[in-house]
Protein 1
Amino acid sequence: MNRKWFHQFSATALALLIVALSFTSYATPQPPPPSRSSSKVMQIEKDPHTFASPAEVVVKHLDLDLNVDFKKKQIGGKATLQIDNKTNAKQLRLDTRDLTIEKVTLGKSATPTTFRLGDEVKFLGRPLVIDIAYDTREVTVYYHTSPTAAALQWLEPSQTAGKKRPFLFTQSEAILARTWVPCQDSPGVRMTYHARVQVPKDLLAVMSATNPTRVNRRGVYEFDMPQAVPSYLLALAVGDLAFRPLGKRSGVYAEPTVVDKAAYEFADIEKMMAAAEALYGPYRWQRYDVIVLPPSFPFGGMENPRLTFATPTVLAGDRSLVSLVAHELAHSWSGNLVTNATWNDFWLNEGFTNYFENRIMEALNGKNYAEMLAQLAQQELQDEVKAISTEHPEDTRLHLELAGRDPDEGMTDIAYDKGFMFLRMIEATVGREKWDAFLRKYFATFAFQSMTTAHFVEYLRANLIKGDQALEEQLKIDQWIYQPGLPDNLPKIHAVEFDKVKAQLQAWQAGKPAKELQTQGWTTQHWLYFLSQLPASMSKAQMADLDAAFGLSKTGNSEILFAWLMRAIANKYEAAYPALEHFLTSQGRRKFLKPLYTELAKTAEGKAMAKRIYQKARPTYHSVSYLTIDEILK
């Protein structure tokens, strides 16, 4: 600043300048135009998990210009947000958590403006409050992430399949996008985005957007997402990646040592896409690719549009676990296309998706196969309701009340399986033809929009029930959605394939050696049902008999191994402990980790073993997983 010019200020002006400098930078105020009619304000459901006020100012487009620094474990650069100021507001409020904000500018002229970070709130982070003018349409935030940003997992080469190069991936759901991008981090806010990302020259970057298929020499990649998406679907992965096409609209990315195995496993993706479109209308995202991430990825899959993130634990070698891909593909309609407005409405994403997944698997593999999946889901639901009801019965409702809580706490089997059973019950009551027509219309009507539970119920009553009081009473909608537990019209599911399993189980319990059981042709679902129906208490001899006959401790099928290890812990079958330790230290999928550590923690001996294993494994887990396990073992 020019010193001579500074001394020409009056004392009053100097005082004003000092106030302005107490912020980071300043902007010239603009006179407001005449106020607009409040009837034109965008109506967005109030979200308890965001500091933003999108009903006043909403982000419509995001431009990212980022550098990925593996040495610093940091992403830095700028985020330019195109905004729509509906109410002549003087401030834009964004969500941040553990971000360092360097400066903020307005418009293409990059005029500096004042901003402040509010107080820290547990799991929500800090609001970034930016001063804007009534005619501001563009805001640019210069920032960098923390090395411990919860959405980012930085992997050393030793933690990857290839062991040669580092790897980075993000996980933004539910409210972790704010840890790597300043944004309105609510599922009720949708935006298009463009990104320019600089990475080390020997690595490939991919996002939930248009993607390259090979490394370029500059290490600079550009991405476009022309369809508006919520922030939790922002995704980035950087690593030593190869690509294999699977069809005209699909392909798979993975590390070079894994990619061919992944391509074999997911060979039927195009068939899945065709089955899904035949059910509920055209696929609206141009491409559907899958990236198989390193084992520390905390979920089975994440439905990032155009690029599903998937765990390697689904690579069973026999395509027996690909229902997970059907699930993530189904999210292209239920979730990505029509999105829960808040995390209280999470079931609208996952319950619909579980139902849709089951229909895709029925179309591909037949009714008997789909019924096995459905019966297992119902069994898991009943177990989950029983477990949750002891302390938090309110969490067995479909519509949740998560204000003041981390929305991650609401992501239980209730949303998935109770939602699935609710929709299946409606189908059984009104008939499949009528129900499918309703769903096709629902997805078409609300494409690229957010949906609340209340609005869905209103739409259901107006377009399906249509004043039929007898049907209304039969469906018991309010009991399913707003009351805890399971209503008495829970669908009755009988998978005839499981009758074969019951016969063999009865023979074994009667004394027949396991090696003589007739298990030829059993699928993963047959085995999961078999293991679920074993007696709670078994002798070491019984456990050893099963293990010797079927190689359960050595199986490469993660679902079967998990179910077996749960039995091994409960029955103190020490012969399986080496497999247990290897499983806990070689993958980070929370679905497996949480129950296993919980079961271990039930005894003093088990908890000691759990803590020993966890001390070694924790550095390899994503924060989504280790924060859960921390609570179990504290």
Protein 2
Amino acid sequence: MNPCRRVTWALAAGLALALTTGTPAAGAPPSPAAGPRLGLISQTFNVAADGTLQLVVALPASVNTAALADATMVVGAYRAVDSREAVQAAVDGELPPSVDTVDLRLADLPPPSGQQLSVSVPLEARTRTSEALQLPAAGVYPLVVEVRSSGEVLAELTTFVHRLPDGDDPFVGDLPVAMAMATTSAVHLDDSTEVVLDDATMAELTHLADVLEAVAIPVSAQVPPALLDALARGDDTQRALEARISAALNNGVGHDALSLPSLPLDPSAAAAAGETDLYTEWLRDGEDLLATTTNSSARRTTRLIPDDISQGGARLLRDLGTRLLVMPVSVYDYLPDTFGGFTDSTQLVQLDVGGGVTVDLAVVDRFADDRLAQRTTTPTLTSIIAVADLLAAREQIVQFGGDPRRHGLTLATPDLSLPNTATVQAITALIADTPGLRPMSLDDLGVRTDQLLYDGQEVVVGLPDAVPGDLLTRTALAGALRVEAAATASMLPEGDPRPNGWTRLIDLIPTEALADDQVTTIAAELRAEYSAIRAAVVPPDGFSFSLTGRRSEIPLKIQNTGDTTLTVVIRMSSSKLLFPEGEQVVELLPGEYTEVRVPIEARSNGKFPVTLEVLTPVGNVRLGPPVPLTARVTALAGLGNLITFAALLMVATWWVRHVRQNRRKRSADTAFGRHPASRAAADQYPRAESESGGPTGDRGAVIDDSGLSPDAATSTLPPS
């Protein structure tokens, strides 16, 4: 059997046992539901062992008080409850065995005041008499009060009484109790990006002030800082409401204002989009707003989670200092690996936030949540039933061998919204006055409460990898707008207020307080403003120019049609020309043409294309398409002619020398062939002639002044 199934069966068995102890005994007097209800005006809930139970009840309109002379009031006590299920069973009329009853003649009671009767019932612990109601041990006892006449039940009431321990009762520790609530009004920004305080929002904030003023125990309240800031900056009525909320948060009861971002930003979406830095910044801003408006520091260590949260979102909160998350059962019951309704919500569950890291989770008490949300017409009875239920939870912990001081209950409505004012006022007032319950903040409860264990191991519940909501589209848009804003702002004079306004609008884009169509409108308006500023710069049309020297300047005229001095960057480029000063930063006066002279250096002659660009100082955003220019370079004409002439002169010199050498060679060959000695040598040595018929040796040989070759001049001739 897997762990979840084993714990399910174990807890189910425990609940079945608790329900068994609440089975009514046969013939237990008196029987409820025998007549119309008595109204409970007031009652002493916490009574000493030998104290007095006092009640003020209201008779139904159908009962004639003048005919009650012979009527009797019967007050019956039933066995103390030991589970929360037993409390609910008694409310439903399923009572445990009877302990004691007291009969009181109405004629002996103070005369009715209208339809109201006042009753005082003496209590006893160690003895049993007919005049007192015996409550033998400390605990919570169901009571049934009936008005009877001639054997007929005219009206009845089921309530509870908490008999306090005396010296003979065992010590049982106090059970910590904390309360949480959050406003549900969404923050909306109008088209002027101001927070909207509509009638519904004002009504809920007024409800918040009422609740904070009414509750008698510490409350951890989660309110968007933007709403409180809007109240503080609003009209007289709104400022007065903000003052009420601030005063209530600081009234000494111990209320906490929980941290939230300055504008709505979902931690799951921020984590998924990689915008943890943005979330951190907005969270700090929200804490600053709360400190300013409420004069109290925000509590970051606790966070209420009314909706789904991803593992990444919970990890982000944990990394930012959150140590306790609070979830309603409507969220918790659908988490991976949860025990659902079989979870002991008096202990903390561990939430897996990834990487082997967990964070504590308090689950809202599922027995009390609906009661806090409902409006009551019987505040006294409602509060008694609610507190009897909490004390029964304490007793149930003891029955299972636990220490109530290491457990804790978190009270809230099913969706963590604001409770009903009258209901919460009555319940918290009685909690504050009831021994055995210890009101405290959620922060303290998270520190004091133990983790839920199963088989000796802490119970760890998972979280989904992702939840609905996408921030990537908006953050990408905001990033693009910031780049455009930085480029355009670099053109403006220092101190121009427009960039600050752009930054403020861009910073709002990720928030859920803006609808998609509002974001689209903001982006379009910003880009139109950027374009208007950039379009005020008018570069010159394309033109041609000539360079008649190696170095020169090109005059450019650039127009600023706007009403603000603008700074631009001039860039010129060409493959055949040099621009020694590179890019030039130029200020353009409003409504004028500004002449810019660009130094240029020629590298060769010819006709070359040149590109002119006018750019923003930051980002190099083009202020219009590149301007094509044409350069005609004649700066190197004299040097070219000199080089050409020198080349021609060298060619002519070589040609003349070559012609002269050829002529001399031909003349030498002719003279050699006519000389007598060369003929005689040719006859004597015929092999000395070359195949071509020429004299022996190289045809280019040097001939001396005698007309003979060197070999012939030194040879020995035969005798004649």
Protein 3
Amino acid sequence: MGSVSTYARPGGPDMGIAAPLTPQRPGSGSSEIALLQELFRAHPDVLLLVDPGGRIVRANPAAVAMLGYAAEELLGLLVDTLVPATARAQHAALRERYGQDPLPRPMGTRMGLTALRKDGSEVNVEIALSPLQGLDQRYVVAALRDISAYPRVQKVLQRAGYSEHLAQLGRVAVDAREPQVVLDQVSAIATGALQADTALIYLLESNLSDFRLASGAGLVAGSAIGSKLPNRPDTLPGFVLHEGHAVKVPDLRHEERFSFPAAYVEAGLTVALAVPLSDRGRTIGAIVVCGRASLHFGDDELHFVESLCNLLATCLQRAQSEDALKHAQRLETVGQLTGGIAHDFNNLLTIIQGSLQVLEEIPSLANDTYGQQLVGAALRASRRGAELTGKLLAFSRRQVLQPDAVDTSAMLHSLADMLRRTLDQSIRIQVDAPAACPPVQADPGQLEAALLNIAVNARDAMLDGGTLRFRARVCNHLPAEVRHNLDDKSADDASFVAISVTDSGSGMTEVVKRRAFEPFFTTKEAGRGTGLGLSTVYGFVTQSSGGVTVDSTLGIGTTMTLYLPRPLDRTASGDADDASSHALPKGLRVLLVEDDSDVRQVVRAFLDGLGCRVTLASSGEQALLAVSGHGPFDLLLSDIALGAGMRGTELARRARHSQPTLAVLLMSGYASELLKADRDAPPGWLQLRKPFTRAELAAAMLRQFTRREPSG
């Protein structure tokens, strides 16, 4: 065999291999040298011969192909150059230690490294080291193998990529204020990370009957953001919702369980993965990813899309919560505004109504027909103003309930008559409420509003007409959920009356039934419902010590049932106007405390007409002086808000301390004051809402003297 010096010189056919390493042994043939040389050239792994100083002295063609350097550029190159800068110093130290005690390290020990190509890109490699013995220098052969194509490595890299995409989405979700930004980011990430052609995000509409295409990437012709798709099992998102789990579709062309837009199949998209989008256990949509036949959806891809769904659901939930909070804050602002205005407005209405009532009874106007017409019109207008204030307060849920015994049968027949005149003639209205049906203890106006709310919802569920039925009966059995929520667990079933409203409309799904009484939840289109109707019904019934249930079947109809308590005396009270003055003892000594002089004069005129002896005070401090100097009094009639001084509630406590038998009747045009007084006042106190008529004042005074109890 010839000497090693016969290896090709730089620039020769052997890629310019460096000078001879050591003389060849006698007897070696040139054919053996050629064979070794060809083995070096043909080896599929990168082979680098490195000298003790760490410089490359030989390299095979695989090195040129993988590392991107020309053959002559590799010769003499410091091997550390092939290591990323962040690990270069550590690699140099490891190389130096290895040179002191070189041992063979075979491929497959999983001691990998990242090699740096000439263009700055990186490739994952596995390395084998083989020190050459018997030479005049300690050379090392480094074998590098590109392991990027290994299935194990591909999986690791793929999962790392998915994690990075999820982290990217998380950063966007934290900063984004608009849900649409996150929706668009999810569809873009889904296509990019999965190398898919199309990603579609469907969200379930509030009516639960349709899906809306909320976002998409790679849409084909004919698809548009905002387009609707029926929520039926024969559509892909509907099928996913029905199944309740992810669905892999191996070939859309032969799918028989559901249909998919033909345009996507015609575009060559045959493979699909659909994952449900869930929020607190409820399916609210689906993410659908489509691609060509070569696209594979394994467990890693499924978990990745599920993670996208979880992140997206969290973002949508946050956006919904923020919207609900803003809505609640707006509602609270309206409540504060209307509550603040109500006090002054109701004082004005008290003056107007009271003055008109006094004017109506002036003898000179008794026979003046035209004058009586004008007074009557003004009274009706003032009452409408009072009703308007009440509606504003009810909207802001600051209305004070004034429970009374309500004739259930009469109310239902009256409500049915009104609805027959206002609802579509295709809706038949029936009433099953016998005259012998017991009354209920509730605020008459709020009960009527609650039933009207339910009736309007029923009308909206019967677009093609149907039957609306009202029914009232003595309750023979309270439902378990109602009994569970009642404060008085010992109440027997017969002490309640069940008022039900049944329609023959479209019915509710189980999801809608569960959420029917949630504030802000609505199945109506945007702008047609606030989502407060049934929640207000629930709040009113609960505040009235009752309960409400819903029973509904899709395609058959819905029944809402209110369970309300019967009055303790089992009798209905008369109208306020029936509490006439002769029912009150003549000469009652009344201490009237009101800081508004005009209101004070109107209420005094009412009391004078009722035969009372009235002492006036404009403040709490002045009233206490009257109690100590002019007492005793039979009744303290005081406004709650008395300017900057003592409040009416504090006045009542101190006056009752001085005179324990004193009856207390508080009045206010500010609903929240009455609410607070109702919570904090002793049982013997009563409240009167402004504006009020003389008959209503008389009725309140009569109730007070009927139920008055000495302070304990």
